[in-house]
Amino acid sequence: MSAKVIKGAPIAEEIRAELKAEIDGLKEKGFTPKLSVVLVGDDPGSVWYARNKVTTGEKMGALVEVHELATDTPEADVVALVKKLNADDDVHGILVELPLPGHINKANVMNAILPAKDVDGVTAEQRGYVLGDMESMALVPATPLACIELIQRAGVDIKGKKVTVIGRGDTVGRPLAMLLLSRGRDATVTVCHSRTADLAAECRAAEILIAAAGAGADHLVKKDDVKPGAIVIDAAINEKPDGSITGDVDPAAEEVAGVITPVPGGVGSLTTTIIVGNTVKALKLQKGL
Amino acid sequence: MSAKVIKGAPIAEEIRAELKAEIDGLKEKGFTPKLSVVLVGDDPGSVWYARNKVTTGEKMGALVEVHELATDTPEADVVALVKKLNADDDVHGILVELPLPGHINKANVMNAILPAKDVDGVTAEQRGYVLGDMESMALVPATPLACIELIQRAGVDIKGKKVTVIGRGDTVGRPLAMLLLSRGRDATVTVCHSRTADLAAECRAAEILIAAAGAGADHLVKKDDVKPGAIVIDAAINEKPDGSITGDVDPAAEEVAGVITPVPGGVGSLTTTIIVGNTVKALKLQKGL
Description:
The first copy, chain A, is of the alpha/beta class.
């Protein structure tokens, strides 16, 4: 048996088509969603992600502007820019590209973002809506939401399924567990991590296995760790020294899984689109639409 | 075999002794922790809980005042009182007793509480700290924290343990899962609920089983659902029509479990003490102590 491979690109395109229609409707009412990206320094990954948001946003008719600041910009100036964007009524979403240069305290910058414009879901308030099962008013972080979209749009019913999430980070594993548990999705969720006693057993028990262990965990999940016919979602992006990208799941798992997402080309293909989607949602919540 | 029964009262007393010493130290520096309880109407449970906070607080030398408002108090007046307490520098913690009368929108009142004084952990910001694994700056809701205190002070090591939580509510199950997963505790956590396909199997797999299904789920967990020697924490308070209190776990589970908490007299015995503890923590965070 060989798994059905679910690629991110066509699903991202489907979401973008829906968002474009929604943005067209908003423009008729006089609103154009605008995302402001703050890019400090010239980390190649961050530069690429920032530009990608501009091109992705433009495809849907949203405005995306990138504020490029020099690597040695003082923290206070970055915070001041964020506050200026908070106060700008024409800006509906704010995203600060990470990593920030070493002299800048990440928390100080993130906490400066007005929660209502926090389209990356990094503020305590947005995280609180996720914990509190108040997703309709939340701006959910992109990677966990991308996992949910991939699963649901691939036609997989999550209800009552046994789901194992590998990874307990604050940007993927923890919020993803909350989303899966929410009323309507109704998954039974197990969260594993580096201290889990028998990770392979937890993986093999899963009808849906989502890997987001991250940094350095490439190919952590072997073929034998996958339950035959399981849905396997790989949410990791591990950069190897040669610059290539791998996931947390050994591609050989394809021989056992029922459905699997590739890395690259899976979950990661949706995140930029979801950030624009969050900008649209932020605008609607801000304007009471 | 019969389980070791862990009662809440002596553990609550141990915590109160520690808090009293801490409060004595704060008083020497000129700070007396003060909790303001807002009680709307005369729900007998709420009246009891409010009074209990006064006596518990006094034992430790904290100030606890109860603002009693008539059942028909307009929502705006309740919100106005909360805002007055927000602005009062001598008040370090605010707690609104639930349930509120039907004409009052709970969310409007809860969201009015200044997060820094939210000792019941009901605001989005406090929930966000819990989701984000930022417990040192969080005011954690009382029941999940009581579960953690009971387990740890009973000498049970959570690290790497397989924990099953029954219940996905926003006040117990969801935050508790986040606390158990946190770095340092390192549990592998499964969250179950009414839509879980095989609840008994999930329970039997658990080295630590925490039941918080709540309302109407009395004695949901049977003796046969418990792994021999497991730690069983019952965080539920189910009120029966005759006014008696039961938990989610059938007391017969005592024959199988290694350690078990009773209901009443277990987790519930800690919550008021923890609210006073949160008031002390809130004061320290507010004053940078």
